[in-house]
Amino acid sequence: MLKKLRTKIRLRKALVAEQHAKQVTHFDHGILDWQTAQYNAYEKGIVWFIVFAAIISLFIIYAFYSKDYFFAAAMIAFAVTYVILQREKPKSVKVTLSKYGIKVGNEVYQYSQIIAFWLIYKPPYMKTLNIRIKNRWAQDIMINMHNEDPAEIREMLSAMIPEWQGKEESFTESLIRLLRL
Question: pLDDT digit string (tens) for 36-51?
Answer without folding.
Answer: 887 777 778 889 889 9
